[in-house]
């Protein structure tokens, strides 16, 4: 469906199942789900790869008319001056719903419709994927249930209201820390019960094959546009593409069409949180940097890099940005890091908050805290440009968190809000 | 004990296979519980090694796993516990694949199976490892004489059943219903359909997911099963009991009740099973 070869790049390990990227990927799911995963693989190949029944044309048209694509690639003049290099922003914050998430949610809900499924479920962390799925389900007239951790519900209330407003049920998940990991477990359990009539819209390039490949294909419209826009507006390819990485869907979306352009450097910016490493005794990592610091294991259907204890228990991750707060990462991204095509870097909570204020004040764009990590990396970038930074979403949803966290830190970049306090 | 001992446990009539989580609420308690289950009539013990993300398990077993992890259960302590058990029924380990991958240094899967065999584990059930991803584990199980038990679900296609039967050993775990583990108040129609779809073979078929009462055990065996697996009902009993002794008594009684259900069926005296969807 795009310029590059989109049949699964996943090579097959001699002795194992489908959907491998080097040593990563695969299909590690309960037997009850395997027939559904096989059915989905078949549907992915027919509709998405081979445009059966005009699926891809339908999808592209809806992305344009409902989603508002293409999104612009715009020069950030003040940041360019600050860093002495041409900084271009890929504006996924301008996609309908305010984040890149709709590219995938719309693709999967539409695919479910083509497959004859009657119900949609999804997990959500920050609520962006849940909101995008609820929007797409409302638009395509499908009943929709979203699993969301109790902690996330409390810290992302506006998104809960958005989902409910679109008619979706929001099912609180109270076990464990009540965040994305637990919500994903619960969505998989629902799917194991309802798989015959239900499609599970995974929100990132994670999970069992074909999800990592399929979600990447739906998101790669980002890099497809950005590459054309760069050639058109700059007359050349960029020196580098920078995107934040949690599960990795905006990352793979922003990188995919550039992977074969060997002169274009690709930087995946992870959440450094408040420190790197895993506190084994606490079963806690004060970061979400699985690409840079994780070890190989199996979680949520795929072999990938994880934040885990030496014994293999998955630990709680941390980031000031709820959307990056996940102990795993997409298997293809892990493979691209191993093969040194993608460079993993990280930015801590403080630097992300400072970048949030910088972009808001200097460019008139309030970025999501997730995207703020990518913007913050420009402080460390050593090339001389041009650089494309993916602004994966807008930050209106983060304002409460940002004001609170900025005051806690006494950030000099932050505006004084004290006077407006009730 | 070896892989063949798991199959042999089904030779003298339909077998009862109870499940508890190792270390819920302590390793010492688990030893007591396993003994009580064997006294109650267990023919095989399925002993859960707790993993932090149990996607195939329902709320009851999730809570048991959480209690065991909070109490400090680890793969190494699990193997010590198995080594200390003084029962003469086969022990089957149920856990998730990541714990095998991380075990020891280097190739965790083979190292885990070797250590498990050495500790006295006779079989493995890994619910997040479908047959397609099981090459490494199958080789390790063969090398160390450990049974590799696969789950057959209501959704499993005939082609997949064939693929699973080619690789399985010990017994086949027949998942009686859609969804996750958890005690129910009825026997699913899926149970009978699943059993009818399975070809006659060398391996026994044990049915689990939702079994909690004497009537369930009887109905399942009358439906043609060679064994009955029950887990959540025991994990619930452990959570509800006020002391280790009280829990052990409850487990012994419940195991005896399910054994009696199996006997009802083998005597062929009971009325037609009542089932609901």
UniProtKB/TrEMBL annotation, chain A:
Q: Which Pfam family, any one, appears in the UniProt record?
A: PALP
A single Gene Ontology CC annotation of this entry is:
cytoplasm
**GO MF, any single term:** tryptophan synthase activity
Q: Does the keyword Lyase apply?
A: yes
**Transmembrane segments in this chain: where?**
none
Q: Which residues carry this modification: N6-(pyridoxal phosphate)lysine?
A: 101
EC code(s) of this entry: 4.2.1.20
Q: In which pathway does it act?
A: Amino-acid biosynthesis; L-tryptophan biosynthesis; L-tryptophan from chorismate: step 5/5
The question of whether Lyase is a record keyword is answered with yes
Q: What InterPro entries is this protein classified in? A: Trp_synth_b_CS, Trp_synth_beta, Trp_synth_beta/beta-like, TrpB-like_PALP, TrpB-like_PALP_sf
Q: Which reaction does it catalyse?
A: (1S,2R)-1-C-(indol-3-yl)glycerol 3-phosphate + L-serine = D-glyceraldehyde 3-phosphate + L-tryptophan + H2O
Q: What class of enzyme is it?
A: lyase
- PROSITE patterns the record matches: TRP_SYNTHASE_BETA
Protein keywords: Amino-acid biosynthesis, Aromatic amino acid biosynthesis, Lyase, Pyridoxal phosphate, Tryptophan biosynthesis
Which portions of this protein are annotated as coiled-coil regions? none
Q: Which Gene3D superfamilies match?
A: 3.40.50.1100
**Cofactor names:** pyridoxal 5'-phosphate
Domain Tryptophan synthase beta chain-like PALP, by residue range, is 67-393
Domain of life of the source:
Archaea
The family line of this record is: Belongs to the TrpB family.
State whether it acts alone or in a complex, and with which partners, per the record.
Answer: Tetramer of two alpha and two beta chains.
Give the protein's function: The beta subunit is responsible for the synthesis of L-tryptophan from indole and L-serine.
What is the name listed in the Swiss-Prot or TrEMBL entry for this protein? Tryptophan synthase beta chain
Q: Tell me the gene name.
A: trpB
Automatic annotation (TrEMBL), chain B:
Q: Does the keyword Nucleotide-binding apply?
A: no
Give the enzyme's main class according to its UniProt record, as a single word.
lyase
Locate the coiled-coil region(s) and give their ranges. none
Pathway per its UniProt entry is:
Amino-acid biosynthesis; L-tryptophan biosynthesis; L-tryptophan from chorismate: step 5/5
- Asked whether the keyword tRNA-binding is assigned, the reply is no
Which keywords describe this protein according to UniProt? Answer: Amino-acid biosynthesis, Aromatic amino acid biosynthesis, Lyase, Tryptophan biosynthesis
- The residues responsible for catalysis, as annotated, are 46 (proton acceptor), 57 (proton acceptor)
GO terms assigned for molecular function: tryptophan synthase activity
Please give the Pfam families that the UniProt record associates with this protein.
Trp_syntA
GO-annotated cellular components = cytosol
Reactions that this protein is recorded to catalyse: (1S,2R)-1-C-(indol-3-yl)glycerol 3-phosphate + L-serine = D-glyceraldehyde 3-phosphate + L-tryptophan + H2O
Q: What is its EC number?
A: 4.2.1.20
Q: Which PANTHER family would you find in this protein's record? A: TRYPTOPHAN SYNTHASE ALPHA CHAIN, CHLOROPLASTIC, TRYPTOPHAN SYNTHASE, ALPHA CHAIN
Summary of the function given for this chain in its UniProt record: The alpha subunit is responsible for the aldol cleavage of indoleglycerol phosphate to indole and glyceraldehyde 3-phosphate.
Subunit structure, per the record? Tetramer of two alpha and two beta chains.
Entries under NCBIfam families matching the protein: trpA
Which family does this protein fall into?
Belongs to the TrpA family.
Q: What is this protein called?
A: Tryptophan synthase alpha chain
């Amino acid at each position: 469906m795009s310029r590059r070869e989109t049949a699964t790049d996943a090579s097959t390990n001699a002795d194992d199942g489908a959907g491998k990227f080097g040593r990563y990927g695969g299909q590690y799911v309960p037997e009850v789900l395997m027939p559904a995963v096989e059915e989905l693989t078949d549907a992915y190949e027919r509709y998405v790869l081979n445009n059966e029944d005009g699926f891809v044309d339908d999808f592209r048209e809806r992305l344009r008319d409902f989603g508002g694509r293409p999104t612009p690639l715009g020069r950030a003049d003040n940041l360019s001056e600050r860093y002495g290099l041409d900084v271009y922003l890929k504006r996924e914050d301008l996609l309908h719903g305010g984040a890149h998430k709709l590219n995938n949610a719309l693709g999967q809900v539409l695919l479910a419709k083509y497959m004859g499924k009657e119900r949609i479920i999804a997990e959500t962390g920050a609520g962006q994927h849940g909101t995008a799925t609820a929007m797409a389900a409302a638009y395509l007239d499908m009943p929709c249930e979203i699993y969301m951790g109790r902690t996330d519900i409390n810290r992302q209330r506006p998104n809960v209201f958005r989902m409910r407003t679109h008619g979706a049920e929001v099912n609180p998940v109270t076990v464990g820390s009540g965040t994305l990991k637990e919500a994903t477990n619960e969505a998989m359990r629902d799917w194991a019960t309802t798989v015959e009539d239900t499609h599970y819209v995974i929100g990132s390039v994670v999970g069992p094959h074909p999800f990592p490949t399929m979600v990447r294909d739906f998101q790669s419209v980002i890099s497809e546009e950005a590459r054309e826009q760069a050639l058109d507006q700059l007359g050349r390819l960029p020196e580098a593409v920078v995107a934040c990485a949690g599960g990795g869907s905006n990352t793979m979306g922003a990188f995919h069409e550039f992977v074969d352009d060997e002169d274009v450097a690709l930087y995946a910016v992870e959440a450094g949180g408040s420190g790197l490493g895993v506190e084994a005794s606490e079963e806690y990592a004060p970061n979400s940097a699985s690409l840079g610091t994780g070890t190989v294991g199996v979680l949520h259907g795929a072999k990938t890099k994880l934040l885990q204890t030496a014994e293999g228990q998955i630990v709680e991750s941390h980031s000031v940005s709820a959307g990056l707060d996940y102990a795993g990462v997409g298997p293809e991204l892990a493979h691209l890091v191993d093969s040194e095509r993608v460079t993993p870097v990280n930015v801590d909570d403080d630097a992300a908050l400072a970048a949030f204020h910088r972009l808001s004040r200097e460019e008139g764009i309030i970025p999501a805290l997730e995207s703020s990590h990518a913007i913050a990396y420009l402080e460390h970038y050593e090339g001389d440009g041009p650089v494309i930074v993916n602004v994966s979403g807008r930050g209106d949803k983060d304002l409460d968190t940002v004001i609170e966290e900025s005051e806690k830190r006494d950030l000099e970049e932050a505006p004084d809000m004290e006077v407006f306090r009730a | 004990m070896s892989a063949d001992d798991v199959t042999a446990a089904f030779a003298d009539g339909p077998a009862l296979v109870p499940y508890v989580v190792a270390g819920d609420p302590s390793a010492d308690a688990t030893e007591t519980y396993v003994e009580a289950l064997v006294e109650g009539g267990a023919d095989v013990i399925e002993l859960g090694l707790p993993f932090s993300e149990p996607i195939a398990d329902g709320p009851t077993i999730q809570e048991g796993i959480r209690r065991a992890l909070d109490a400090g259960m680890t793969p190494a302590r699990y193997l010590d516990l198995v080594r200390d058990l003084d029962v003469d029924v086969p022990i089957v380990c149920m856990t998730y694949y990541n714990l095998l991958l991380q075990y020891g240094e280097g190739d965790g899967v083979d190292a885990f199976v070797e250590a498990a065999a050495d500790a006295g584990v006779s079989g493995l059930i890994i619910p997040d490892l479908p047959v397609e991803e099981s090459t490494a584990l199958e080789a390790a199980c063969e090398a160390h004489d450990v049974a590799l038990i696969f789950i057959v679900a209501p959704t499993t296609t005939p082609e997949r059943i064939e693929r699973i039967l080619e690789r399985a050993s010990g017994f086949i775990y027949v998942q009686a219903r859609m969804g996750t583990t958890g005690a129910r108040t009825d026997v699913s129609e899926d149970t009978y359909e699943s059993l009818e779809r399975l070809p006659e073979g060398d391996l026994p078929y044990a049915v689990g997911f939702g079994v909690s009462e004497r009537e369930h055990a009887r109905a399942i065996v009358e439906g043609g099963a060679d064994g009955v697996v029950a887990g959540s009902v025991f994990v619930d009993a452990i959570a509800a009991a006020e002391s280790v002794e009280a829990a052990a008594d409850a487990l012994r009684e419940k195991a005896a009740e399910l054994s009696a259900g199996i006997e009802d069926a083998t005597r062929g005296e009971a009325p037609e099973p009542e089932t609901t969807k």
